[in-house]
Amino acid sequence: MSQRKRESNANELSRRGFLKGAGLGAGAVATGVMTPAETLLAAEKKDEIRGPGELAVTLRVNGRRHRLQVEPRVTLLDALRDRLGVTGPKKVCDHGECGACTVLLDGRPVYACMNLAADVAARNLPVETVENLGTPEHLNTLQQEWVRQDASQCGFCTSGFIMAATALLRDTPHPSPEQVREQLSGNLCRCGTYPKIFAAVEAAARRGPGSA
Ligand code: FES
Ligand code: FES
Predict the structure, then answer these.
(1) CA neighbours within 13 Å on the CB side: how many for 66?
(2) Over the stretch 175-196, which tens digit does the pLDDT of each residue have?
(3) Ligand 2 neighbourhood includes 157 CB (under 6 angstroms)
(4) Number of C-beta neighbours around residue 90 at 10 A
(5) Ligand 2 pocket: which of 98, 150, 158, 161 to mutate (most atoms <8 Å of CB)?
(6) Structural domain spans, the chain
(7) 133-206 maps to which CATH number?
(8) C-alpha radius of gyration, the chain, whole number
(9) What is the pTM of this model?
(10) How far is the CA of 189 from the centre of ligand 2 (A)?
(11) What spacing in Å lies between the alpha carbon of 96 and ligand 2's midpoint?
(12) What pLDDT shows up at residue 18?
């Protein structure tokens, strides 16, 4: 089971309990080290229940701060796509299974559909999406290799794979084939382009640090 799958199982608690999940106790989240589930439980203990109406939150996305109103049940994925127009992360399963919604939260790949926007905002964690990488005119190295290796068919999985691979290449510029497969094990490609996806990541790694 991939790390993201394990974490998404824990986060399911915060989604199920969304009405109480708005209980974002300031003390509980101030350290920024609590998981969503721990934050929820701490808030419940203090009986700090807010919502279900909208909350004013600030999300840090791709280096910009965005003020918005969200109900506590709104996922990070819906906030990005529907409120902020950041549509790189794709909504496919909406249930922590496919990885199409993968974004980097404080540099770590997570399923945006399994995190609550209000919780991410309360923890003041930076969010990075594929929009923060190359542009259509100036693809970064990893994206260039994606094209060169023909690693996309329908493309629905692509941004999620690229964000997961980006996290890997930033931490481990020269990963082994096994490390590439392990890192990408939380992402599914229904078109079955896995060999080309792995080849793209490995080719980018060969081009050296800074490829992501
Ligand atoms: S849409 Fe989030 S994991 Fe599938
Ligand atoms: S390219 Fe179609 S799901 Fe991966």
Answers:
(1) 21
(2) 999 999 999 999 999 999 999 9
(3) yes
(4) 22
(5) 158
(6) 3-129, 133-206
(7) 1.10.150.120
(8) 17
(9) 0.83
(10) 5
(11) 17
(12) 45
